[in-house]
């Protein structure tokens, strides 16, 4: 598999050098693997720190900036960052109001963020943690006990980030982040496998003509494998899986925030066509769509496919969603 | 090749339905294949119309909105839109100040936009045309006499769009658009072929382990095929090709606008790493970078690879580049 890289060993460092060059408004520490919003400690705000394995860009570093994350800790490709990165990030963004760790539910991430929270606490930094576990496809997976964390991470980071920007205290930001996660569900589909730089070839076997329903963002197995389906059939399956689960928990009224997300290699032309089918299913189920995002936001390297994330958003969440944001990958309204 | 589609015949219409659902701020005419900025005729502005074959998203429809295009005419995948779309677009956006057609240099596009300009003229609409032909890889190509139009289209649409938003008259907007094109050069590289929905399999043969230097955005052949190269070597080749050509024309001083563009299937992680190499080569050649954009903007369906576009920008161009823009794919500062 041809890749636009120098070597598997330098992929993450090279990308961080590129981010530093492209985004002078961010402090990028290539050696220590930290991307920090400039002036993150100022302004009396709660700090928002996230991170995880690389290969899901723009998540997380592309969401650092005004109104969203204070810092991101990128690990190696599909590998958790280490606690040292997270404690440094916490120190770099804590202006005295405390720090919220946004953690996708993968065992390595959870352990490392927990250790970092403990270490930061010993340094006198108040830390809260929110676990993102929105993927309804499977319970327990290759790298996860419980549900995996995927597209809802974007919702959590955007909405909690807006609250922090407004000056909300730590407990409030954390409570809101948990509420967004609790109100969100996702389902992903792979049309092709992805290839990590270290392996240089597909990390799992998905023959042309078949798709994986419920795939994880590292290619973890989903619910079932089937013969290739039309976009409308995939939307039926994915949206119903999300809604069926969502309705068990949240009150089944009110509008949703919708993320129609590309896994990496699926053309935007196809994602928009898929979005039309998602909207059709939602209309048939009587679910109004309040806000929409279509594009590559939580990716899996060069995997072809898509995911749908829905968040049953209340008025406060919608107001914070609409609030200005200025990051490399998400910006509006300022 | 698995694709997220209903059928090859409905790909463009499906995508337009999705755009209509995702972007209520745009008027999307699915049947007539038009994407128009709401209120485009109001405000006493020159109208900016572009279009071309689909498969290059977000170009062009993703650039319709405040401060950029007034309308886009999407053709079938890799196929020119028809004159009827363009005359309808001209009529839909002309508020009396005239219309600028931004045309990428492909024979079908050129012929059809010329015919549309004539027809619009007969209807009393003043039309100017700018031809974008920035690709230095080859002269004459599969679908082109002269140079192909690629990444500079984004620069032309953004900068001319900002001038139109400010109320500049047609001649001024057209002159500026031509100046941006004359100051811009591009070079593209394919690491894999792309697959059109109609064909369902790769449209050209590029074996794993080889790359195409100078590829066009439809997979047209470039300068040469080589064994796979490292990111830094690709940057050396591409940036030098662009600069060598750029220096023949524009005064070789002043900063550049840089677009490091993904062809579709190359992960953002890799694009940022490539950008670091692009910046290195530019520094070595003594070229300051004034502004940077890294991401998928002028794509070729699911092709893996990248392109570099540089524009030797004067102060006016930089000011207009920085001006607020609010479109599905490009937004800042408002």
From TrEMBL, chains A, B:
Its EC number is 2.7.1.121. PROSITE patterns: DHAK. It is an enzyme of class 2 (transferase). The keyword Signal does not apply. Pfam families: Dak1. InterPro entries: DhaK_1, DhaK_dom, Dihydroxyacetone_Kinase. GO terms for molecular function: phosphoenolpyruvate-glycerone phosphotransferase activity. This is Dihydroxyacetone kinase subunit DhaK. Residues 7-332 form the DhaK domain. Keywords: Kinase, Transferase.
């Amino acid at each position: 598999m041809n890749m636009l890289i120098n070597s598997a060993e330098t992929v993450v460092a090279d990308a961080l050098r590129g981010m530093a060059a492209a985004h002078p408004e961010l402090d990028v520490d290539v050696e220590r693997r930290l991307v920090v919003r400039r002036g993150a400690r100022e302004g009396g705000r709660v700090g928002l720190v996230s991170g995880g394995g690389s290969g899901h860009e723009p998540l997380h570093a592309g969401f650092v900036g005004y109104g969203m994350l204070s810092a991101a800790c990128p690990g190696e490709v599909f590998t958790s960052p280490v606690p040292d990165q997270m404690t440094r990030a916490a120190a770099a963004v804590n202006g005295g109001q405390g720090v919220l760790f946004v953690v996708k539910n993968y065992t390595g991430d959870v352990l490392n963020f927990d250790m970092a929270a403990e270490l930061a606490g010993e340094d006198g930094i108040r830390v809260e943690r929110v676990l993102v576990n929105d993927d309804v496809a499977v319970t327990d997976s290759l790298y996860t006990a419980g549900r995996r964390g995927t597209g809802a991470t974007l919702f959590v980071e955007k909405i909690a980030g807006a609250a922090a920007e407004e000056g909300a205290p730590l407990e409030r930001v954390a409570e809101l982040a948990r509420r967004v996660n609790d109100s969100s569900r996702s389902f992903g589909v792979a049309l092709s496998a992805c290839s990590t730089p270290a392996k240089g070839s597909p990390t799992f076997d998905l023959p042309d003509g078949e798709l994986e329903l419920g795939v994880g963002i590292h290619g973890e197995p989903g619910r079932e494998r089937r013969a290739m389906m039309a976009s409308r059939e995939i939307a039926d399956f994915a949206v119903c899986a999300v809604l069926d689960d969502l309705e068990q928990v949240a009150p089944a009224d009110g509008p949703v925030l919708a993320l129609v997300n590309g896994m990496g290699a699926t053309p935007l032309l196809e994602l928009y066509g898929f979005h039309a089918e998602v909207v059709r299913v939602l209309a048939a189920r009587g679910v109004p769509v309040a806000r929409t995002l279509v594009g590559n936001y939580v990716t899996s390297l060069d995997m072809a496919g898509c995911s749908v994330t829905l968040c049953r958003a209340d008025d406060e969440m919608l107001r914070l969603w609409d609030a200005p944001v200025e990051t490399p990958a998400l910006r509006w309204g300022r």
